[in-house]
Specification:
The complex is a heterodimer of chains A (about 90) and B (about 575).
Chain A (H helix, E strand, L loop, with lengths): L1 H60 L2 H10 L17
Chain B lengths: L2 H6 L7 H28 L1 H10 L1 E7 L6 E2 L5 E13 L1 H5 L5 H7 L4 H10 L6 E7 L1 H9 L5 E10 L7 H4 L11 H5 L1 H4 L4 E7 L5 E9 L7 E2 L4 H17 L4 E8 L4 E8 L18 H4 L1 E2 L6 H10 L8 E3 L4 E4 L2 E4 L6 E3 H7 L2 H22 L26 H8 L6 E2 H12 L3 E2 L17 E2 L3 H10 L21 E11 L2 E15 L6 E8 L8 H19 L8 H4 L11
Parallel strand pairs in B: 2-8
Antiparallel strand pairs in B: 1-6, 2-3, 3-4, 3-5, 6-7, 9-10, 9-21, 11-16, 12-15, 13-14, 17-18, 19-20, 20-21
Classes of the chains: A mainly alpha (about 90), B alpha+beta (about 575).
C-alpha cells in the first residue's frame, strides 16, 4: 500500500519536474525564435529597400534616351538606313 | 485518504491566542494598505503620474508598400521605395538645446528656425521635422543623438519613365493616395492595407516593449500596363521634337495594336517631371489624348468612304465631279485646295478633296452619315477607364441640314478625342472590327466588350488600298513614308474654333496611319496643336513625326518589312504640301 503510494508520488513529482523544465525550455526557445524573427524581419526590410533601389538604378541606366545617346556618341553607332537585299540560300 | 485512521485521532481545540494573533495581523495589514493608498492617491500624486507617463500602450501603424505600375515588359513606371521621415517630441528635444544646431544643419533648418518650430508646437507629442529622406540621410540625422527624435518608415513614389509617362501614370499625394492618371484610376488595386503592432512606449516615444500582437501590412498589387516604355519614350521624343520645331503649343501621339486594342504608347506634350513635384507647370498635368477634343477634319474621310463602299452607294470606280473646287451647299461654299476635276475615290483620298467628300456625304444623307460616326465609336468613351475621359460631341442627325451634313462629311461640326480617332482607325486596320481600347494587361477578358463589326472586312481592305497613294509624292503625306513598309494613313489640318468662329491662324495638324498596309501591326496617331512657324498642314507637321515614330517602332517590334525594295532606295521623296 504505502510502497505503491510512494512510487506514485515519486512518478508524479518527476513528471511535474520534467514538465516545468520543459516549460522553461519552451520559453527559452520562443524567446530565441522571437529574436531570430526580429533579425530576419530587419533583414527582409533591408533587402526590400535594396531591391527597390536596384530596380530604380536599373531603370535609370536602361533609360531609352540614355542608351540611344551612348550608342550614338560613345559607340559611334547609327540606325541602318540603306540595305542591300540578298537572296536567301535554300 | 484513510478514513479509519482519522476517526481514531483525537481532535483538540486550537489555543484561543492563535485566532486573536491572526486577527491582529490582518488588522495591521489593512491599516498599512490603507495608509499607502492614501499616500499615493492624496499626498503624493506626482509619483503615479510619472510612472504612468513612462509607458503608454500604443498601436503603431506599419505602412504598406503601394503596388508598382509596370509597362508590358515589366519595366517599372512607378515604384515605391522606402524613405525615412524624421519626427520629434518637441518638449523632449528642447530639453537638450546643445544638440539643436547640429540637428538643424542635418535637416536644412537654421538653428533659430528649428527652435521656433519646436516652441510653437511644444504641447504636441508628434511633429514632423523632415519627410521622406533617403535612408542614408536619415542615419546621419539619427547620428546626432538628439533626444526625442525618431524615424518613421514612409514610402516615396519614383517615376522612372519621367516626362514621357508623366500624365499617363499620374501622381499620388505625399500620403500615397492616387491623384491623377493610372495612380487614380487603379488606386484600389495599387493601394495596400497598413498593418499594426501594439507596443509600450515611454514618455519620449521610445518603444520599450513590443507586444506579440502584430498584424502584418498587406502590400498593394502591381499593375501591368499595355504600354511599352521603349515606344513611349520614342513617341515622346519625336512628338517633342515636332512641337518644338514647329513652335507649336502642344501635341499628342498615340500608338495601338489594332488586333487587340492595346495601347502601346500614349504621350502628351508639354509634360512635367513627376519626380520633382514642386513645380508642375499649369496645363501639363492633363493627358490631352483623353481630355482634349478637336474636329477630326480630313481624317474622317476614309471612314466615310468605307461606309459608302459598304452600303453600295459608291464603288471604287465611281467618279465624282468636284465642280472646279468650289461647291455651293445652301449658304456654304465647300472649297478644295485646287481644282481636281473628276475624281475617283482613290484620288479623292489622295488629294483629300472636300468637295468630293461633301458629295459622298450628301448622297448618304444625314442619318447614314451620323451612323458612320456613331458606329466608329465617336460620342462614346474608348474603354480604357482613364480619369477625365471626354465623350466629344456628336449631335443627333434629326437636327442636321444640308450644310451640317456636308461639313460633317469632311470632319467638321463634330468633336472627338484622339483616343476615339485611333480606335476608329484600328477598326479600319483590323478588317472593320471596332474594339474597346485597353490600357491594362490584367483581367483581359472579363470587362472587355466583344469587337463590333462596323464595316465589312472587304470594305476595310478596299479603303486601305485606296489610301495607298496618300503616302507618296502624289498625296498629301509623302513625308509619312517609312522605308521598307507600305504605310497607309490620312492627314488632317483643322482650323481651331476660337470663340464664335474658326480662327484662320490657329490650326491642328493631324496624321493617323498604319503599317504594314495589308495586315497592319501598328496604328499611330500624331496631333500637333497650333503650329506657329508657318507650316501647319498635317502632311508637313505631323507626318514626319509619324514617320520617325513608325520607323523605330516597327524595328523595335521586329515587324517584317512588306516592301523591302524601298529599303535600298533613298525613300526621301519630296512631298506635295497640302492637306
Amino acid at each position: 500500500m504505502t510502497g505503491r503510494r510512494a512510487v506514485l508520488l515519486t512518478v508524479l513529482g518527476g513528471v511535474a519536474l520534467a514538465s516545468s523544465v520543459a516549460v522553461i525550455e519552451a520559453k527559452h526557445q520562443s524567446r530565441e525564435l522571437q529574436s531570430e524573427l526580429q533579425v530576419l524581419r530587419v533583414e527582409r526590410d533591408r533587402l526590400r529597400t535594396e531591391w527597390s533601389q536596384l530596380q530604380l538604378e536599373e531603370s535609370a541606366w536602361a533609360n531609352p534616351d540614355r542608351v540611344a545617346r551612348m550608342a550614338r556618341e560613345q559607340l559611334d553607332m547609327q540606325v541602318p538606313r540603306h540595305f542591300e537585299l540578298i537572296e536567301a540560300q535554300p | 485518504m484513510n478514513r479509519s485512521r482519522r476517526r481514531n485521532h483525537k481532535l483538540e481545540p486550537p489555543p484561543a491566542w492563535r485566532a486573536r494573533a491572526m486577527l491582529g495581523l490582518f488588522g495591521v495589514f489593512a491599516v498599512m494598505l490603507g495608509a499607502r493608498a492614501f499616500e499615493l492617491q492624496v499626498l503624493d500624486q506626482e509619483f503615479l503620474n510619472e510612472e504612468g507617463a513612462k509607458r503608454h500602450l500604443r498601436t503603431m501603424e506599419v505602412p504598406a508598400v503601394r503596388g508598382a505600375i509596370r509597362d508590358r515588359r515589366g519595366a517599372p513606371l512607378a515604384l515605391s521605395a522606402p524613405t525615412e521621415s524624421v519626427w520629434a517630441v518637441p518638449a523632449a528635444l528642447l530639453e537638450d538645446p546643445g544638440r539643436l544646431s547640429a540637428l538643424a544643419s542635418e535637416l536644412d533648418y537654421s538653428t533659430a528656425e528649428l527652435r521656433d518650430r519646436l516652441e510653437n508646437y511644444r504641447e504636441r507629442q508628434f511633429l514632423y521635422l523632415q519627410r521622406q529622406l533617403s535612408p542614408a540621410h536619415a542615419q546621419r540625422v539619427m547620428a546626432v543623438g538628439a533626444p526625442g527624435v525618431f524615424l518613421q518608415r514612409e514610402y516615396r513614389r519614383y517615376y522612372p519613365g519621367g516626362e514621357s509617362t508623366a500624365q499617363l501614370v499620374g501622381l499620388t499625394d505625399i500620403d500615397g493616395r492616387g491623384q491623377e492618371g493610372i495612380e487614380l484610376a487603379l488606386d484600389d488595386e495599387l493601394d495596400g492595407t497598413p498593418g499594426s503592432r501594439r507596443v509600450i512606449k515611454d514618455r519620449v516615444g521610445r518603444v520599450v516593449e513590443d507586444l506579440a500582437e502584430f498584424t502584418p501590412p498587406d502590400p498593394g498589387g502591381d499593375v501591368r500596363l499595355t504600354v511599352d516604355l521603349r515606344l513611349q519614350a520614342l513617341a515622346y521624343r519625336e512628338l517633342k521634337a515636332a512641337v518644338l520645331e514647329h513652335q507649336a503649343s502642344a501635341g499628342v501621339a498615340l500608338m495601338a495594336d489594332p488586333e487587340t486594342g492595346e495601347i502601346l504608347a500614349m504621350v502628351s506634350f508639354p509634360s512635367f517631371n513627376p519626380n520633382s513635384r514642386d513645380s508642375i507647370p499649369t496645363g501639363t498635368l492633363r493627358h490631352r489624348a483623353v481630355t482634349d477634343t478637336f474636329e477630326p477634319g480630313s481624317t474622317f474621310k476614309p471612314l466615310l468612304i468605307s461606309r459608302a463602299l459598304d452600303a453600295g452607294a459608291f464603288t471604287r470606280d465611281s467618279v465624282i465631279d468636284t465642280e472646279g473646287g468650289r461647291f455651293r451647299v445652301g449658304r456654304l461654299t465647300v472649297r478644295d485646295f485646287r481644282d481636281y476635276g473628276d475624281v475617283d475615290l482613290r484620288r479623292l483620298l489622295t488629294k483629300s478633296s472636300n468637295v468630293g467628300a461633301a458629295k459622298v456625304g450628301l448622297k448618304l444623307g444625314p442619318e447614314r452619315l451620323w451612323q458612320v460616326y456613331n458606329d466608329y465609336g465617336f460620342g462614346s468613351i474608348s474603354g480604357i477607364r482613364f480619369p477625365g475621359e471626354r465623350y466629344g460631341v456628336l449631335r443627333n442627325f434629326a437636327r442636321w441640314d444640308d450644310v451640317t451634313t456636308a461639313t460633317a462629311a469632311y470632319g467638321y461640326g463634330v468633336s472627338v478625342t484622339a483616343l476615339q480617332l485611333i480606335r476608329a482607325y484600328a477598326a479600319l486596320a483590323d478588317d472593320g472590327r471596332l474594339r474597346d481600347l485597353r490600357l491594362t494587361l490584367a483581367n483581359q477578358d472579363d470587362w472587355q466588350a466583344a469587337p463590333r463589326q462596323v464595316i465589312s472586312a472587304d470594305a476595310a481592305a478596299k479603303v486601305r488600298d485606296l489610301l495607298g497613294d496618300v503616302v507618296s509624292a502624289e498625296g498629301t503625306a509623302g513625308r509619312a513614308a517609312v522605308p521598307g513598309y507600305r504605310v497607309v494613313g490620312k492627314t488632317g489640318t483643322v482650323r481651331k474654333v476660337e470663340g464664335a468662329g474658326y480662327d484662320a491662324a490657329s490650326h491642328q495638324s493631324l496624321f493617323v496611319g498604319m503599317a504594314p498596309a495589308d495586315d497592319p501591326a501598328l496604328v499611330t496617331l500624331v496631333m500637333v496643336d497650333e503650329p506657329g512657324s508657318g507650316d501647319y498642314y498635317g502632311g508637313l507637321v505631323a507626318a514626319p513625326a509619324f514617320s520617325n515614330i513608325m520607323r523605330e517602332a516597327l524595328r523595335i517590334l521586329r515587324v517584317p518589312p512588306d516592301n523591302p525594295a524601298t529599303l535600298t532606295a533613298d525613300a526621301a521623296a519630296e512631298p506635295e504640301s497640302k492637306s
